[in-house]
Amino acid sequence: MLIGRKREQQELQDILESKQSEFVVVFGRRRVGKTYLIREFFHNDFTFYHTGMANEDGKNQLTAFNYSLNQYGKKKYTKAKTWFDAFCQLREMLENTATNGKKVVFIDEMPWLDTPKSGFISALEFFWNAYASTQKDIILIVCGSASSWIANKLLNNHGGLHNRVTRQIYLNQFTLKECEQFYSASGIELNRYQIAESYMIFGGIPYYLSLLKKQFGLSQNVDLLCFNNNGKLVNEFDNLYASLFRNHENHIAVISALSKKTKGLTRQEIIDTTKISEGGNLTKVLKELEISGFIRKYRSFGKKERNVLYQLMDFFTLFYYNFMENSSNDENFWTNFSENARHRAWSGYAFEQVCLAHVRQIKQKLSIAGVVSNISSWKYNDSDDGVQIDLVIDRADNVINLCEMKYANALFEIDKDYDENLRNKKAVFRTKTKTNKALHVTMLTTYGVKHNAYWGNIQSEIMLDDLFQ
Q1: Residue 445: which of 410, 394, 420, 393 has the closest Cα?
Q2: Nearest-10 Cα torsion for 59, 62, 63, 67
Q3: Could you tell me if 100 and 60 are in contact, meaning their C-beta atoms sit under 8 angstroms apart?
Q4: Domain segments of the chain: what residues?
Q5: Which has the closest alpha carbon to 402: 380, 378, 381?
Q6: How many helices (H) and strands (E) does the chain have?
Q7: Which fold is adopted by the domain 189-357?
Q8: Structure confidence by residue, pLDDT tens digits, 171-211
Q9: What is the pLDDT of residues 404-431, one digit of tens each?
């Protein structure tokens, strides 16, 4: 059963009805459900299916490929010595396969097949250019979690595969609404506040959500998965990065640095913190982390490209560094963890990230879904007037929304001090940016803003329920 993924399913349906052969690349973060989407959509009905194996050499990869050929083909093939020969065998198999519709070839975890000096990419290039692209009935779907490999070797290939990919499907994590649908289909009873908290811990990663047991509450599930000695996510952090990036030590160093500076770091600040050299290696690491969906690069309002900040945006990684990395052996840690400064700091920032992951829903609530707008943040450092605005929506209709995000377990109340704080932020923003646009203060909260004497000083409010649309 597929939850959500409406746009992706429509794209796959269009591919199925296409009048030409299609080279389809499906990519996204590990555990986001890429393989599940393809298997479910095509009902596991493939003309040929193969998956690469992690940390295996070229010889074993070819052995496994031969096994798949013999499983799907009508004849037995001898093991190929090279990838060129293996793809020639695949071509022969497809030519001898009769079908009324498209021949769907699904190669999963393709990055693992491209071992050093294997010639895999050249062989794939020849297979597509010399055969598959000349047909009208072949759908070649390749998939992989190593998004940087996908980008460098396929999407941005400057050799024989340049511009050969006909379709790209980037699979995002679930939205809050899709998480709600997933939990409902799984018989897991959580209210929307709890679903938001689960999002702050696991993100919208289907595999993580699938591990929750319906007989337990959210806190119990978190303990069982993250703090129990045999918890299925206890070693997930190490496995996650090691499986995606070769020589992943620098990736971890960058992630670790960003976990300690939630508002983000500039490139130079990352260099100063991690001691990674200014050279191309850092550029490669940042690009790979960004493509894989672990960090985001964003521009502060009014700043140029060279002033961009990098920010950690992976929910599970953030939760790991805050609570799992140096946790005690308490298997009931999360159930017994009471709200304190540490919890408030994490939950406040994590809720901001939840909001940033649902900008489309925010714009919809503000009735500006069709208005062209730029999304950014803004920070001004001054000993007297230091100001940070984490979400700025700069609209083409001459309005800027300055969004304040507050995580609370009840109605949020704007008191006199906070009202003065909002007024100050608004005034400093106008003075320093010199904008002439109308400035609207928008409050994003869990249960809304109490309608007291200061409520009228904001222009709009958005509640957690609105993010579920």
Answers
A1: 410
A2: 170
A3: no
A4: 6-170, 189-357, 359-467
A5: 378
A6: 20, 12
A7: Arc Repressor Mutant, subunit A (1.10.10)
A8: 999 999 999 999 999 999 999 999 999 999 999 999 999 99
A9: 999 999 999 999 999 999 999 999 999 9
